[in-house]
Amino acid sequence: MNEAKTRPLSPHLQVYRLPMAALMSITHRITGAALSAGFALVAFFLVSAAIGEDYYNVVMGYASSLFGMLVLVAWSLALYYHTFNGIRHLIWDWCPSTVSKDKATVSGWIVLLASAAATALTWMVV
Amino acid sequence: MHAHDNKDSCCGCSSHAHTHKKGEALSHWIRLRFSSLLLVPLTLWLVISIVGLVGADHATFMAWLDARLNAYLLGAFIVISCYHAALGVQEIIEDYISCEVTARCAILAEKTAFLGLSVLCIGSIFLIVTQ
Predict the structure, then answer these.
(1) Cβ–Cβ of B89/A36 closer than 8 Å?
(2) Considering only alpha carbons, which residue of chain B is nearest residue A92?
(3) Measured between beta carbons, which residues in chain A are less than 8 angstroms from residue B125?
(4) Mean pLDDT of the B34-62 span
(5) Helix crossing, A20-51 with A53-63: angle to 10°?
(6) Which residue of A13, A19, B70, B97 shows the fewest CB atoms closer than 10 Å?
(7) Can you give chain B as a three-state secondary structure string?
(8) Candidates A36, A40, A50; nearest CB to B127
(9) Cis ω on the peptide bond leading into residue B41 (within 30° of 0)?
């Protein structure tokens, strides 16, 4: 068990440029963690609405300020990305023949473009 | 939420492998996927609803939540996504924290936090719709 401590970590992130699939993967994890942390804000908003109008107005004031809108746009982008990339993972799990380097690059770009398009469309239309 | 009841006595931290009961990892994997499947339609509904509600006054929001379908869908989204988040954060902890005791404590804390958050949210929704 001793070699577990000295065993090199792979890949060496300082000297290794991550391929697109790996960047998509770590972004999925980062957006997942950020969305999880964002749950505290969802709870904060709902509790304020339940307490009363004064509290609600303060929280909604923050949410609809410029900074609040930026956070919300980032939130919707992260949520769309995590959802679409999650669907990509579900397709891989369901149907392993869809897993290949080239297909993963294509589907990765589809996820990126779909996330950007869905975010833009949501904020323009709604 | 499930109990981790396999016992091992470290932490001198010589053992860096996470020990799982037989089938535990597979069930974690399945529950993460199953919840994600349920979350796909709920998430799309939620983003569009929330964006439409930005800047809404208190009465508008209360009326929105008073529509039973919205309350049920929001409740379902909160419970399922808290569950999904708890499982996902557990996976991150297991990947990056090699000391098993620290990891167990972090997972317990993280799951308690998500349970608390979902109770807060569901409680608030319940208060609003019964007001």
Answers:
(1) yes
(2) B33
(3) 46, 50
(4) 93
(5) 150
(6) A13
(7) CCCCCCCCCCCCCCCCCCCCCCCHHHHHHHHHHHHHHHHHHHHHHHHHHHHHHCCCCHHHHHHHHHCHHHHHHHHHHHHHHHHHHHHHHHHHHHHHCCCHHHHHHHHHHHHHHHHHHHHHHHHHHHHHHHC
(8) A50
(9) no
Tokens matching residue B31: 């529950």
pLDDT band for A62, please (50, 70, 90 cuts).
very high
Alpha carbons B99 and B101: distance in angstroms, whole number: 6
A36 touches chain B (CB under 8 A): yes
pLDDT digits (tens, 9 = 90+) for A74-96: 999 999 999 999 999 999 999 98
Residues of chain A contacting residue B77, judged by C-beta atoms under 8 Å apart: none
Asked whether the predicted pLDDT for residue B86 surpasses 70, the reply is: yes
Of the partner residues B56, B88, B125, the one whose CB lies closest to the CB of residue A32: B88
Q: Which residue of B has its CA nearest to A37?
A: B85
As given in the structure block, the two tokens for residue B13 are: 């931290």
For A57-72, what is the HEC assignment?
Answer: HHHHHHHCCHHHHHHH
Distance from CA of A24 to the nearest CA of B (A): 16
A109 Cα to chain B: minimum distance (Å)? 19
Phi-psi map region of B20: left, alpha, beta (phi>0 left; psi -120 to 50 alpha):
beta
Burial of A60 (0-12, 13-18, 19+ CB in 10 A): buried
Contact B50 A43 (CB under 8 A): no
Answer whether A107's CB lies under 8 Å from A88's CB: yes
Mean pLDDT of all residues belonging to chain B: 87
